[in-house]
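Reopening this one. Same input as before:
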Amino acid sequence: MASVHESLYFNPMMTNGVVHANVFGIKDWVTPYKISVLALLYEMTASKIPLPERRRLNKLILPLQQGPDLTLGQFLKTVEECCPQTAYAVKRRLREMADGELRDMEYFFSILPTPFTAFDTEAYKTSVVGLFMRHMLLAYNKLSFSQVYKLYKSLQQYYHSHYAKRTDGQVGLPALIADDSDMDLTSTEDTVGDRIDKEELDTPLHESELRNDNAPSKGPLSQKQAEYFLARQAYLLKNDENKALKPAALQEELNNMLKFNPDFAEAHYLNYLNSMRVQDIFLSAHSLLHYFDRLILSGNEGKSNGDEGYGRSLRYAALNLASLHCRFGHYQQADLALQEAIRIAQESNDHVCLQHCLSWLYTLEQMKGSDSAVLTEDSVKMAAHFCFHFCIIHQLTRYLASLGIQSLVQQGATQGKTAHKLMDALKDTDILHWKHSLSELIEISLAQTTSIWRMYGKSTMALQQAQLLLNMSSLEPVNFGVQQNNTEAFTVALCHLAELHAEQGLYSAVSEILQHLKEQFPPHTQHAKLWMLCDLKIQFERHMNEGKYYLAEPLITAMSALNKTEGLYRKAQVLKALNRTTEAYSILQRLQVHCEKAKCTEIVIRVMLSTAELHWESSGFFTALPLLLQALALARQHHLQCLASEAMLHLAFTQLMLGVPKQALSVLHEAIEPILAHGSVMDKGRALLLTARCQIAVAGFRPNGQGQADLNVVVLAVDTLNEAAAYFCKLNCKERLRDIHYLQAQLHHALGQTSKRNKSAMLFRLLDQELQSPAPPVYMRL
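Same output, byte for byte:
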């Protein structure tokens, strides 16, 4: 379930992915790449292009202008994907200039439409195209003849390097020598010393390998290019990490950026976010501290807020540092950083920062396993107070209040609150979420509702809520082609969906869901652990149902690395299946003590049921009764219907073994309805098999033919076994099918149905030979 306020992307300087970049000191240049873009814009204004292709080209204009310089091959490939005809025209135009003479380039600039006169084209003066053309014309007209000649030679190199055959099989572009006086729009003269210094600092980018932001560039970026790059990457890391640069490539690009400007604060912050992706605690903390140091030294905060800006940076630096330590489980360091942030915020009377600190404080208490209900309630009350009294921070406090209520609902679910109370609390906040289009909170609410219904054993309701979330259209503005289905809430919903399908034996659908999760959330992303654990649990349960314990055992190590509690519980299950009772009992006892301290009620109940099964193996049915009654009471207290039904199944089996089948059948009648409505295929099959055995015992049937059995009840038991066999066939559960065919053969023999008896006996024999393992007594297993 999505935890409350665990986003590590909060930064007052990077709102909605917009990065306020520092000045690099690098100006825009008249480069061969910009001439290529100019040729593209000219062809768009001078020729007729079909409407769909023109739309694609229009979307491409701004990224080409603002992004890093591309090689000719990358540029032509990008244009060709949108409009092959225009790409050919651009290539022909560039060839005419590169293979011709200097006057051909002069002629090209002379035929460009003037932005002040081109009223009916894209080159109008107020359009993006017109502004770019005007900028380029001003820059070109300012050049001297020698500078124009250098530009022409650079264009020839730019064009011919694309077609040149290189011995290493790579196509590269030689570095272009240009100084500040050649291309600067403002300088009229230069000195030799200044030119040398500016060549070292302001060398233009001509060797960029950045195509669609998927490869790092080789050189300094202009201010606009840096702003565009950082804004895009910050947005993608927050909303669609899979489309952002790979961690290594982004690290190389940021290192290159910081090499030319070490005081670029926002690059350090993006470096911090990138380090968090690969769980690099040292580099992430180092980059975060550098960000706030550079931010304070640069004076960006102080210029807008005076002395208050300095303190604001300090308290948010401490708050971000606390969130960083929370992410890595360093609770003591997180607590110290959080206390520092609270102290500075109180001194400055910053209610917004204090509200964030309180949210992180109860989140930290939750992570440590402490009861944080009081802190959460205080946070909600404080946020509600500021919602009514301070309209400036109304939106933020509403957001934090909603997060606090969702956290209270999460705590209430684990503490045994009834479903209708929790749903009423979520309903009131959901109305505000939809009213104000807070899509992130809507997604968290739907994922939380899915988890709550699943925990309460209402699989149909959980499935409905998961589908509602997955089919919801995003309320957020979609930029950079990002799809809003990559948050933690979507991951949780998809994992629940996969587990629900696995419970019904629909493993082909499970494979498709997990494949989508693997593509959407690669292993290095922050939410990948959720689907990894889900995948391991599904594989484990499938192998256990099929009796392939040797395949289930290796999964325990990987599961323990993601969740120690789940790993220990699964290990006990495998040991129990392998008849290593003593080891299994020891693990279950340790696990029960740990989960009772951590208040993991679901695991405690499951541990009790598994311990009762161990008592069965030694015929300790009387010893198992107190455990089962305790588990049933705990499940009912916390309204866990699925676990309560499973406890009743265990209780009915124990009663059957103690010789009271009528009481066992009565318990089954109470438990079987929710199992058939919301239970897994395995639970349905086990419940029907146990019902058939109780019916056989009530009918007075004996395998040796002694006594008079009620044949009507025996016929009913045969039908019940057929239904159970259909469920076990879905899971390929051969051991259970072997038990069913054994019972069916005996019942058909008692009914005088020879052909059906022989068929059941043959199926039993085939399965027994295939399994090649001694069948445990049917009456000793649920």
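So the earlier flakiness isn't reproducible anymore. For the record, Residues 680-781 form one domain.
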